[in-house]
Amino acid sequence: MSIHKHRVWDGPTRVFHWALAVAIVALIVSGNIGGNAMVWHMRAGYLVLSLLMFRVVWGFVGGHWSRFSQFRLSPAGVVRYLRGNQSTRDSDILGHSPTGSWSVVGLLAVVGAQATAGLFSDDDIATAGPLAAHAPSAIVDAAGAYHTGPGKLLIIALVALHLGAIVFYAFKRKRNLLPAMLHGDHVGASAIDAPASRDGLWVWLSGAAVWVLCAALVAWGVARFGG
Ligand code: HEM
Ligand code: HEM
C-alpha cells in the first residue's frame, strides 16, 4: 500500500501553535502563583500578543490551509457537519472542519480578549499591565475583574474543550489530528485532489520575519507606555 503525504500545516503555523500552547499554560500557572512569577506572566503575555498578531497576518498570507478564506464558517455547513452529512469531497478532509474552524475563531478571540484585559489590569500590589496607568479606574477595575474571573475560566474551558475534541476525533471518529500539527502532513492511503500548503525554507523565513515585526511592535508599545 502506498502512502500519500499532503502538507496541511506549514512550519510557521505549527511553531505558532506550540508556542501559544506553552505560553498559555505558563500564563495560567504564573497568574495563579502571583508574586515574583508575575514578571514572567507579563513576558509570556507579550509573547501571546505577538503570536496573535502573527496569526492574523498569517491568516491572509500564510499557507493555503492556514488562510481564513479556507475556514468553513457557514452556519448551514456547521449544521450539516453536526448532523453527520459530511462531504466526502477529498478537499473537505483537509484543513479545519466546520466545528474546528469556529473553535479556532473562538480560541483566538478569547485569548485576544484575555491578553487585552491583562494590559489594563492592576493587582493593586506590585503588578499592573502597561495601559493601566493610562486608563480611567472604572476601566482598570472592569478589565481586572474580567481577567481574573470569567476570562480566566473561559480560557481554561475552551482549552479543555479543544483537548476533548481532539481525543473525541481520535477515538470516536478514528481520526488522529495530532500528527499533522507536529510534522505538517495529512497522511493517507490515497492521493488527495486539493491544494497543499506551501512550506520550506522561504516560508519559514517569511513567517519568522512576520513574527519579528509583530514582536517589535509589541516591544515598542510596552516601551512607549511602560511595562
Ligand atoms: C493552551 C493550549 C492550547 C491552545 C491555546 C491551542 C490553540 C489552538 C489553535 C488556535 C489552533 C488552530 C491552529 C491554527 O489554525 O492556527 C489549534 C489547533 C490544533 N491543536 Fe491546539 N492549542 C492548545 C493545546 C493543544 C495541545 C496540548 C494539543 C495536543 C494534544 C493540541 C492539538 C491541536 C491540533 C491537533 C490542532 C489542529 C486541529 C485541526 O486539525 O483542525 N493543541 N490549537
Ligand atoms: C492570554 C493571556 C493571559 C492569560 C491566560 C492570563 C491569565 C491570568 C491569570 C490566570 C491570572 C490570575 C487570576 C487570579 O488571580 O485568579 C492573571 C492575573 C493577572 N494578569 Fe494575566 N493572563 C494573560 C495575559 C496577561 C497580559 C498580556 C498581562 C499584562 C501585560 C497580564 C497581566 C495580569 C495582571 C496585572 C494580573 C493580576 C490581576 C489582579 O490580581 O487583579 N495578563 N492572568
How would you describe this structure in keywords?
227 residues, mainly alpha, Fumarate Reductase Cytochrome B subunit, two-stranded antiparallel ribbon, 2 strands, 63% helix, binds protoporphyrin IX containing FE
Outline type:
globular
Can you tell me the number of structural domains?
1
Please give the order of strands in the largest beta sheet: 1-2
The strand count comes to 2
Category from helices, strands and their pairing:
mainly alpha
Low-confidence stretches: none
- Reading off the top of the CATH hierarchy, the class is best stated as Mainly Alpha
Q: What is the count of helical runs?
A: 8
- Rounded to the nearest angstrom, the distance between the terminal CA atoms is 57 Å
Q: Could you tell me the strand content as a percent range?
A: under 5%
Mean pLDDT: 93
